[in-house]
Structures
1.
Amino acid sequence: MVFSFSSDQPIFRQITVRIANDIVNGELKEGDQVPSTNEFAKLLQINPATAAKGINILVDQEILYKKRGIGMFVSGGARAKLIKERQDSFRETYIAPMLNEANQIELSDEQIKQLIDEERGKRK
Amino acid sequence: MVFSFSSDQPIFRQITVRIANDIVNGELKEGDQVPSTNEFAKLLQINPATAAKGINILVDQEILYKKRGIGMFVSGGARAKLIKERQDSFRETYIAPMLNEANQIELSDEQIKQLIDEERGKRK
């Protein structure tokens, strides 16, 4: 798990997002143990309180769970839950801003769909 | 022309973007006179050098032009030129990141296109 911090978001938020991403992309699997708050803090050279804040968001969402005296693990169903959340926000995060821009620059929905096909073709 | 600065981008860049947006959305029309660098600086309570930096980008792109001793104006063809630029970057700025996210969260192109139709339907 390699971290590089950007200045756009608070560090605790970047930790939350990065762990969640690693679960979605399969780098962290359900049942896997994740580093403890103190290990994270040491690894990333950040304040333990900051690491705890980022991690506890995922504990509160039941994406991670703690086994007392053993460590912290990825919950069963975590990946599906994170994917569902991101699917739910996809329209607001991607579709709506794209249509706003398309309106401004006079691109039709047909042209957008064609660009999707072209971009997809380029990737195959 | 109302400005509010965000912290994400340097102020000179926000000035460039905002004037360009006003040309695209028609608030500033081709041939319209725009405030001088010093008027901008006063209006926005910023350093004249910052205002000049933001404005000169548009002068260099021939979106704005100066008439010596008279003032600064929106060039003929400015709107079409700005729209063309934004159309050219639309794929990279909107389509590609959207498809990256769709891949991660397992949305098909068909599902994306359906979301576009739904979002469009909501707006009508």
Note: The interface with chain A takes residues 8, 21, 24-25, 83, 86-87, 90-91, 93-99, 101-102, 104-107, 109, 112-113, 115-120, 123 of chain B (CB under 8 Å).
2.
Amino acid sequence: MKVFPYKDIEAKDANEGASKLRVRWLITKDIGAKNFAMRLFEMEPGGHSPFHSHTWEHEVFILEGEGHVVGENKETKFKAGDVVFVAPNDKHQFKNSGKKTVKFLCLVPYMEK
Amino acid sequence: MKVFPYKDIEAKDANEGASKLRVRWLITKDIGAKNFAMRLFEMEPGGHSPFHSHTWEHEVFILEGEGHVVGENKETKFKAGDVVFVAPNDKHQFKNSGKKTVKFLCLVPYMEK
């Protein structure tokens, strides 16, 4: 069993296509998580994730802040305490349209098992 | 894509062996999550989960409050912002040893796929 503050894990710049977005990989295969990974994202005001899709799902919990999640044909507001489920192949983008840092957990399956 | 406040999902009493513990199943197979489920637990002061083990892991994020997680041979404090990874077959129990409700996310894989 492991217990640690999320800030113990380094925040790194997120992938190409993102802006003002950093990610901490909190729970991964490296500590024995074989099925899915827990990441914590921090997105500054005006920041966004890439607008893209992929074959795996996202399970998201908004910890702090507010913004919009952009889909194929619409934008939906989110705020702290909201849950977001992005199904496989759904186009999606997270945007910080508020004045505070948005923090959210985003969990993804390990697909190759 | 689905976006909803966690409170939209009903809180139900947790399993036998737990006390003052309720669970909301936020993301499940019912909305298309085939690999793992997101649950949110609310544990009142003095409450606890069962002391048990099982063949699947837990990926936990503490949202609010403080308490202890009990393992085979030790207790470890946790507080808001902490991450807990319980490996398969690790004995574990979550206890609210603080004065406020503890809220935590606990994600589990779907094993039968």
Note: The first strand of chain A starts at residue 2 and ends at 5.
3.
Amino acid sequence: MKISVFIATSLDGYIAKLDGSIDWLMDKRYELEGEGFGYQELYDACDLLVMGRNSFEKVAGFDEWPYPGKRVIVLSRTFKALPKNIDNVELFSGSIIELIEMLTMQNSKHIYIDGGQVIQAFLEEGVVTDMTITTIPILLGEGIKLFGALSKEKHIKLLSAKGYDNGFVQSKYEVFN
Amino acid sequence: MKISVFIATSLDGYIAKLDGSIDWLMDKRYELEGEGFGYQELYDACDLLVMGRNSFEKVAGFDEWPYPGKRVIVLSRTFKALPKNIDNVELFSGSIIELIEMLTMQNSKHIYIDGGQVIQAFLEEGVVTDMTITTIPILLGEGIKLFGALSKEKHIKLLSAKGYDNGFVQSKYEVFN
């Protein structure tokens, strides 16, 4: 089973400001006509999305649900039920290993995981298979970190690196577990 | 006056382990025959190096002084004198602005600054002109951070990005001040 990270980060390693906002990322200065940076291809290739409570609350607050029709699993031990009923969104309160066992039983082939805490937990658990990191040309100074503590250092393998005219640098890595 | 950063960082943003060690960076797996990643060109182009106390103590402990003949300024307010007398190395205990005033008077054209705290302080002061960041394909989990807090976010301009066969990704940025 492939477990993929596809995320944007400031050069200093933040995926959002401390209040969770990503307005700095949505800046018009970064728009490149006809360029989606590979997001849609990954999204389409994945059976489902896994995200944490914070990411869910963030996207559930958008005017439009960004993942119509896509299966989404929200990892949370604090939610008793999802605060907002959205088609195809389910709550999971077990461990990562239990989640992967369930998804393996269900014959899932490719999972897209999102959000700093989820990514950090999956990396620590040693189950991420690949990461596409898009580095935005900005220093935020503070925010919600992409990476966190690990019980041991982890070598990763660069698959490709590409700079874009809008200043993004996208690096793809294979993760050894 | 150009003030350049040229530094390697783990993908999770650390320039050294917590004890200051960079053994993970010196790993033989990263050796690429005949490839210096542009370090020598920058080093040769610079009139002088500026580093902090930690970086100085680190390199002063090497078997061989790595900057023979190069002017080096060590920024420190705690040192009364340099603990080790090395030719062409001087102590400066003033502010960054005072340092730049002095170097401007001395007609310095290009400064290479090194070390996390020095880089962070120069960025916060708004005097860095360009950064070459080489991202090493490893997650350390903890360590000495390349970037730190800033009083306001800072847009930077990507000049080039390149992936290497050893997994390094080198990105060059112009910094607006």
Note: Helices of chain A lie at 39-45, 53-60, 96-105, 116-125.
4.
Amino acid sequence: MTIYKEQINLKSHGKTPTFFNITDSVKEVIQKSKIQGGICVVISSHTTCSVFFEEFVHDYNENGNEFLQTDLNNVLQKIIPDNIAEGQYNYPGEKHYEAVASWPNAESYLPNGDRSALLNCDAHLKSTLLGSSEIFEVDEGKLGVGTTGYIYFVDFDRTRPRDRKCKIIVLGE
Amino acid sequence: MTIYKEQINLKSHGKTPTFFNITDSVKEVIQKSKIQGGICVVISSHTTCSVFFEEFVHDYNENGNEFLQTDLNNVLQKIIPDNIAEGQYNYPGEKHYEAVASWPNAESYLPNGDRSALLNCDAHLKSTLLGSSEIFEVDEGKLGVGTTGYIYFVDFDRTRPRDRKCKIIVLGE
Amino acid sequence: MTIYKEQINLKSHGKTPTFFNITDSVKEVIQKSKIQGGICVVISSHTTCSVFFEEFVHDYNENGNEFLQTDLNNVLQKIIPDNIAEGQYNYPGEKHYEAVASWPNAESYLPNGDRSALLNCDAHLKSTLLGSSEIFEVDEGKLGVGTTGYIYFVDFDRTRPRDRKCKIIVLGE
């Protein structure tokens, strides 16, 4: 049994949740792995991002989101409203602001000291609900997702554009 | 380390979400794999289906659903109401209807051209929330789920009966 | 490719959902495994518990919950209210009470015959939403979670303190 992995780099726009159809990247990694049968693990290493399996839809809204993405946003927004002001959620607290401000790379998390950069509680909770990893089948050297299945990476963070990493790990023979 | 996999085939009834207790099938695949220690991955390759881990309940409602399944349906129904009419959700849009109608196997998705066969936005969103895969332990040749744990496959699609596939993949030694 | 696993034992307090930051345990298991590249699977074998990936927050509420945990509890409570009385949910039904009472280890589930010990429907549904397993990357012998990512085990059961097991399985080379 062997293991093969790659990282793909994604750039979110940060206005609304950013959805990436990463199916072609996953298929390419499986092909390069030369693994014929096994599993393919897709992992977000960010706590405001998720990986999920969904149909590709041919209609888009004004943000460029596919219709199922818009519907998902609407459902999640009802139960986890956008974090637009301090005090709306408990997170982030004063001690957390202080801790983040003391990190060597504080500028990445609080650019120009802008406290609103941490107002992404909604993104944290949404990604907890959807989960940070998903596993797919590798069958006869191909991603086993049927005709209508696609793999999406979503960054729920709306505070600003972010550089995101997604790990694709193939295990098998 | 070796890998062993099987596919199980399931038929949903399509009236309400269809729940399948697949625990015995998973145990059988682990036994046939002869793998003593490792992991067992259970995967839905359909975008309206999920795999989850839950207690088996001895009481059923009038649909044959176990009580925790009925309670799960009620909770999900509150946040993601059944998709009963066009326009209720964005999905499916006109371009998606056109695309699906042009597929070689269009009849599987739009039987007799019935547009209501795509009114399963609720099923897509529910399965995104629950996820398409779950991993279990294989310990001393057995499924490591404790006394009360069972594995369920659910098809949330209520539009019609469907043939569904579930992949069970065992990795270990 | 090799496989290495350990079990960690946790004790929930049973008043509100109990959250455990298990990141250091996971890192320790990876180190002991000597595996340099691969995956680390973290699994709950209890049907009221989940594993999830989240930021560590430096602020706590009066229960000792980090602020993102409090916010998660609030969101989940809105859609899945605490199970405080029989009849609020379908679960647990009379046949389930009878079945559990007949188990050899009935005392673990119905201590002193207390029926309220099964009033944990909310915990079952919450853990179904969050899922029972999560996968992480092992990269250069280390847990691949970035600067702000931590791994949490949660027991949503509020009926009483429970002994819980979490499985950590590392696969790789």
Note: The domain at 2-83+120-172 of chain B is CATH 2.60.120.460 (Jelly Rolls).
